[in-house]
Specification:
Length: 213
């Protein structure tokens, strides 16, 4: 297994560890914030590996079929696991309907990518998709921290952790929805173009058959 795929596998292994830290079985639960800090650090590290494995695969020329399968799978599992866990961990900030929208968006994009692949074309991630990824990381980490702290007081500066978390979660919903619409529009244009190419090819094929006969 090459280095990029090893990094992807590491991210997958981090997911159950992340869920265990957020669970009631974690030894540090209820103490002075160790649980929230550890879970936040682990999620950030897992998110960093998300970009690192793809970068290394392209730079080293190690793009493989297993990597193309595992990388998006690891991303979807990580996002889905994090938000589902947060529904139980911090339900005041992360509502069920919010998680349904975010996860539903991931399933929609996966379905469109499968159809696009079967039609022989791909749709690259837009700037909105990249923004969505960053906002998701911020919302997950802030929601974890908001479980322990409503605000941080640093000298005369007051950081409203809980309100930042709520704002980040709702912003994630907005960006996820807009990016899904943007992706669907790009998909529709590509699929319509592919259908038009097939129609032209069919017309040319029939024309050649007539001339031959």
């Amino acid at each position: 297994m090459n280095l990029p795929n090893s990094i992807t596998m590491t991210r997958i292994i981090m997911i159950p560890l992340f869920l265990w830290i957020l669970s009631s079985h974690f030894p540090g639960r209820g103490l002075s914030g160790e649980q929230e800090i550890l879970a936040s650090i682990l999620f950030v590290l897992a998110s960093i590996t998300d970009g690192l494995d793809g970068y290394l695969a392209r730079k080293r020329g190690q793009i493989t079929t297993i990597g193309m399968l595992l990388d998006p799978l690891a991303d979807k599992i990580m996002v889905t696991a994090a938000f589902i866990a947060l529904v139980a961990y911090n339900p005041e900030v992360v509502k069920v309907w919010i998680v349904v929208v975010i996860i539903g968006r991931e399933f929609l994009i996966s379905g469109l990518r499968s159809i696009a692949s079967s039609e022989g074309f791909t749709i690259t991630a837009s700037e909105l998709g990249k923004l969505k990824t960053v906002v998701q990381i911020v919302s997950v980490v802030s929601a974890i921290l908001a479980h322990r702290w409503d605000q941080w007081v640093i000298g005369v500066v007051v950081i409203p952790v809980k309100w930042y978390a709520i704002a980040a979660i709702y912003f994630t919903v907005v960006v996820s929805t807009i990016s899904a619409i943007d992706y669907f529009i790009g998909f529709w244009k590509q699929i319509d173009h592919a259908s038009e190419d097939r129609r032209k090819a069919a017309v040319l094929s029939r024309g050649k058959s007539v001339r031959i006969s």
